[in-house]
Amino acid sequence: MTTEEKIKSLREELHHHNNLYYIQDDPELSDYEFDMKLKELQELENNHPEFEDKNSPTRRVGGAVTKNFETVVHDFRMYSLSNSYSKEELEDWEKRIEKAIGGKVQYVCELKYDGASISLTYENGKLARAVTRGDGFQGDNVTNNIKTIPAVPLKLKGDYPEKFHIRGEIVLPYEGFAKMNAERVEAGEEPYANPRNTASGSLKLQDSAEVAKRPLDCLLYSLVADSLPVKSQFESLEKAREWGFKVPPEAELKNSIAEVQDYVNYWDQHRHDLPYETDGVVVKVNSFDQQDELGYTAKSPRWAMAYKFKAEQESTRLNKITYQVGRTGAITPVANLEPVKLAGTIVKRASLHNADQIEKLDVREQDIVYVEKGGEIIPKIVGVDFKQRDPNTPETEYATNCPECGTELIRNEGEAQHYCPNYNGCPPQIIGRIQHFISRKAMDIEGLGGETVALLVNANLIENYADLYTLKKEDILPLERMAEKSAENLINGIEKSKEIPFERVLFALGIRFVGETVAKKLAKYYKNIDALASATVEELIAIDEIGGRIAESLTDFFASEENRELVARLKQYGVQMEMAPEELENLSDKLADKTFVISGVFEKVSRNELKKMIEDNGGKVSGSISGKTNFLVAGDNMGPSKLAKAEKLGTKIISEDDFLKMV
Ligand SMILES: NC(=O)c1ccc[n+]([C@@H]2O[C@H](COP(=O)([O-])OP(=O)(O)OC[C@H]3O[C@@H](n4cnc5c(N)ncnc54)[C@H](O)[C@@H]3O)[C@@H](O)[C@H]2O)c1
Ligand SMILES: [Zn+2]
């Protein structure tokens, strides 16, 4: 390959990975691998200026605007950061800076929060706009989504300038991320890969109510305006805090790069104590005058440098691949590792996700593998040390039969996971379904825990959740650790669960892909189990947010004789199989067949309340205006493109008050 070809091929490769990372939120390379390729390209370009290209990934921010939001041109360009992975690079940077400035320089050290960049514009103390970085020149207007984040102040306090921008990062703290994933797994869906991509993906959702459910946070780090009441980065952080912004307290002033190194070393160790992901330290020249003097390269400020932490990675031997069966029958391959210390904990197992992942990594038993810990609950294998592989190691053959019941596994087209189809005879599925049924968010049966469920099943006292309601105290007393009192509590708990409202019963049934939210939606829509059981796929997918996958899973569930019998028995025992009259009270069909788009901010009710009112009265809410839209409910600060589109299509535009009168 000639140098020119090499440069071209690297550029193409990097464009491709930028797209996966910024647009699809689904990267294939680690950041380190990406940065090394970028560095290689940079060096080639430096040595061969004749092949210059102003669209090269070395000269442009990797993101882009999407078609789904209004495009906004940034008043001040949003740059990337130069990055370094070694102390030597930091020292070289210090030398360059001191030479340009002609003396010693003060630095601010901040943590590099790993999420999605955002620029917030405030006018007269009010949030006017929130825009993604996009390609650095223009971004997506995601104001409605950002407004759902509690950490973003809608109104400021103190002596703020009339108009300014503040930049920061939208992050998803570990705890919320783990919770979201637990819920997804519970509903039979695939977990999200990591907090960064999930945060970034959340901003691009069309439905702000969906964004509101995600526990996002917003950390701010930089003020931008024609004129600011401060003269340095450190002061600006303090000011931003005074005005009501969430500025993390870890930022510190340093007098040399040697001091910066101590900060880096400290946080390389302690970053795991923080509630959110960080991937490095950002070092900035403190004085704004000196920043101006240093200026910018094509892509980043010369006055700042990101020092990136190496991902916590270890290598260890993979002893054995085993397979776990979930309550929905989904099979998860697990790597059983030679124990290794990683990010402060001993790791013995790592997830291999599914058959595709195993094939992609070409991972085999006895391989030396690289294990990384990101935001995931359980660590993952990111690669294999092929140099250390014995050439005779056989390729991994994915399990063909269920490890628990021996049934042949199936894999539906388009799905990543294999399934054990032995719904009624596979022990972990039987036990898992009953454990799900009694869990806190479902039937919340007091006095009954997951282990007792397993005991009850193994003692042949129950085979399914309906059997719970036939249990008698005498039956369970002989069980291990069961005393008079605990047996009584258990029976009382089961009795009390008959009061649990229909929407939660529906969730408790454990139908694949029917999580809490979907169950609520269906309960409201169909009002009782018989109506739902006789719904067709076509009817189901006509409901907002119910897709083909959910619809098919529902019709499959009710097509089974056994399931229908279980439901009939539950009903007979007194479990709620319809909405209570008081829950139906504010439900009407007033808005049936009407589609609404909500835009802007409202005074009397929140967007979420507005949405609920529409749905409670039989209407539909859609994210974008089309020929099918009947009404645009317009609030303050509504996006001009929406308004233009509504006017063009002749959509009826109504105010908040008009709407409230309608219902
Ligand atoms: N894995 C992949 O395939 C892939 C692809 C593209 C990019 N990437 C990663 O993304 C990086 C490039 O992305 P980038 O251009 O967003 O640069 P960057 O993430 O390295 O640095 C710039 C960004 O850092 C963020 N930031 C966080 N804390 C900050 C703070 N305290 N002060 C200032 N900024 C702060 C800001 O959002 C800013 O836009 C690469 O280094 C690479 O690691 C990876
Ligand atoms: Zn099985």
Automatic annotation (TrEMBL):
It catalyses: NAD(+) + (deoxyribonucleotide)n-3'-hydroxyl + 5'-phospho-(deoxyribonucleotide)m = (deoxyribonucleotide)n+m + AMP + beta-nicotinamide D-nucleotide. Its EC number is 6.5.1.2. DNA ligase that catalyzes the formation of phosphodiester linkages between 5'-phosphoryl and 3'-hydroxyl groups in double-stranded DNA using NAD as a coenzyme and as the energy source for the reaction. It is essential for DNA replication and repair of damaged DNA. This is DNA ligase. The active site is at K112 (n6-amp-lysine intermediate). Its cofactor is Mg(2+); Mn(2+). The gene is ligA. Zn(2+) binds at C402, C405, C420, C426. InterPro entries: BRCT_dom (IPR001357), BRCT_dom_sf (IPR036420), DisA/LigA_HHH (IPR041663), DNA_ligase (IPR001679), DNA_ligase_CS (IPR033136), DNAligase_adenylation (IPR013839), DNAligase_N (IPR013840), Hlx-hairpin-Hlx_DNA-bd_motif (IPR003583). NAD(+) binds at D31, Y32, E33, F34, D35, S80, L81, E110, R133, E169, K284, K308.
